[in-house]
Every structure is written in structure tokens, then in C-alpha cells.
Design brief:
This protein has about 280 residues and is of the alpha+beta class. It contains seven helices and eleven strands. Helix 4 crosses helix 6 and helix 6 packs antiparallel against helix 7.
Length: about 280
């Protein structure tokens, strides 16, 4: 039986349960029904209730709203922040290790491209690489299924909200989108496993996750994949810290024209690390 969320501050009429960038342009500030669900703000923080983000960087609504966010608890949000700013803020405030951790883990798993920001319970997926520009996002932890309407259009259907389902359409997606979604779900699954393993080893806590109706719990989409092997939170964070140190040394070497600093850094970095002992 599908999990049902009892409240959702979005229109219940079937006419307003399907959304796309084109439909937003036709309805926002033009449709009185939609108006009662709108919230205008200059800031927003991604959370578990975020459903989708459509970017309007080039053609902001009212000249200032660069993104439209669907939030199942708050409604339809016109936000002055761009989609890239929304993701960056979320990464800085909520992500373990930030975006560098996400990229390092993806590299360890041999996953190419950057299409997902994940925490184990949350997974935000971009239709294009988020390194390229402001892009649209869909929250896979709120999605139950998706299908391709054409070679250029994909539609995502949400989980059940007390008998209501919402669909979000996107155009101009990658031709490898199915593989990218599969990889994104696997990536989120690995983070969930790493967190569970870390809690069990270091805190003696067993983290159990109930199987839900969203894509992040549907293993058929992301198996088989490479096993995580000896990956751990500590090893990945250590790798991130080492790369940060190296990046800083490269900056100094370039700024002061002292290339030998790069080689000397190996000794400095080693000496700067306090041994993991009691003494």
C-alpha cells in the first residue's frame, strides 16, 4: 500500500495537478486560482517538502523572481534566488562535507556528470549537469514514477497526497536521462549505506530505513551497480580535506610564482596532520 501524505498545500483540481515551464508562464500572475497558492519571497531553503524547482533566470517573473518552487507544505513559491543559489545555500547549510563530498563520492563510484545532490533520505536531481548553468530540479524522494512522453519530454509523478498526485514535465533533457536517474538513485543509496555503517561502527546504533513509495526506495531502478567496497565517510572526508589543502597550495604557488611549494606541500601536509594517538 502506498504511503499517503495527508496534507498538501497545492491545488486539488485535476486541471492544476500537471505542471511545466510553459504552464507556469501561462498561469503565474494570470490565473486567479493559482494566485491563492502563491508565496513571494527573496529566500528559500530546500527541505524534505520540496517537490520541484523550475528556473527562470533569463526571464524572471515580475522582473525579479528567478525560480518557481513547488513545496507540498507551503505551496507555489516565487523566489528571487536562482536555482543555482538555492542549491549552493542548501549545500553550505545542510550537506555533510558540502558539494566537494558529493563530487568526491561520485568520483569514487565512477559516476560521471553532476546531476544529483543527495543525503540518503533526500535526493534532488537536475535534468542537466548542475555544473553547467542554472537548471531545473526534481526531488526524487517525492516521486513515485516517471516516463518519457517523447524524445525531448519527461514527466515525473509524485507520491500520493491524500488521493492527489502531481506531475511535473521537463523538456530538453539528456538522451541518457534514464541512466542518469538510475545513477542518482544509486548514489543516494550509497550515502544511506555509508551513514548506516558509520552509525553502527562508531556509535553502536542500528539505523533502519522503512521502505517507502518514492523512487529512492525502489531498488529496481539502481541495481546492479558497483559495490561500495571499503568506502567510508572518514576516508572520503579525508580525501576532500587533502584536495582542499592542495588547492590552496596551488593558489599560493601561482600567486607568488613559487612552483616548488607544490612539492614541498607533501611534507608540510604530512607534518600538519596530528597522529591519531593519545599522545
Amino acid at each position: 500500500m502506498n504511503k499517503t501524505h495527508t496534507t498538501c498545500r497545492l491545488p486539488h483540481s485535476p486541471r492544476y495537478q500537471v505542471w511545466s515551464k510553459q504552464l507556469l508562464q501561462e498561469r503565474i500572475e494570470k490565473d486567479k486560482v493559482v494566485e491563492q497558492y502563491l508565496i513571494r519571497t527573496n529566500t528559500y531553503l530546500l527541505n524534505a517538502n520540496t517537490l520541484a524547482i523550475y528556473e527562470f533566470q533569463q526571464q524572471p517573473f515580475s522582473g525579479i523572481y528567478k525560480s518557481v518552487i513547488f513545496d507540498c507544505q507551503e505551496g507555489i513559491i516565487l523566489c528571487q534566488q536562482s536555482s543555482s543559489t538555492l542549491i549552493t545555500t542548501f549545500a553550505q547549510k545542510a550537506l555533510l562535507g558540502g558539494l566537494e563530498f558529493q563530487r568526491e563520492l561520485a568520483d569514487k563510484l565512477n559516476l560521471k556528470g553532476h546531476n544529483v545532490i543527495a543525503t540518503g533520505n533526500l535526493a534532488y536531481f537536475s535534468l542537466q549537469s548542475y555544473n553547467s548553468s542554472n537548471v531545473d530540479w526534481i526531488a526524487l524522494h517525492q516521486i513515485s514514477k516517471f516516463k518519457f512522453l517523447s524524445s525531448a519530454t519527461v514527466i515525473f509523478k509524485t507520491i500520493n497526497y491524500n488521493g492527489n498526485w502531481y506531475s511535473f514535465m521537463f523538456d530538453k533533457h539528456s538522451k541518457y536521462l534514464f541512466e542518469k536517474i538510475s545513477n542518482a538513485l544509486f548514489f543516494n543509496h550509497v550515502i544511506s549505506k555509508l551513514l548506516a555503517n558509520h552509525a553502527a561502527i562508531y556509535f553502536g546504533i542500528t539505523l533502519s530505513k522503512k521502505r517507502g513509495p518514492s523512487l529512492i526506495d525502489q531498488s529496481d531502478y539502481f541495481h546492479p551497480h558497483k559495490a561500495i567496497g571499503d568506502l567510508s565517510l572518514k576516508s572520503i572526508i579525508s580525501a576532500v580535506n587533502q584536495k582542499r589543502q592542495l588547492r590552496y597550495v596551488h593558489y599560493l604557488a601561482d600567486e607568488f610564482e613559487m612552483p616548488y611549494l607544490i612539492e614541498a606541500n607533501k611534507t608540510v601536509y604530512y607534518l600538519s596532520k596530528r597522529p591519531d594517538t593519545l599522545y
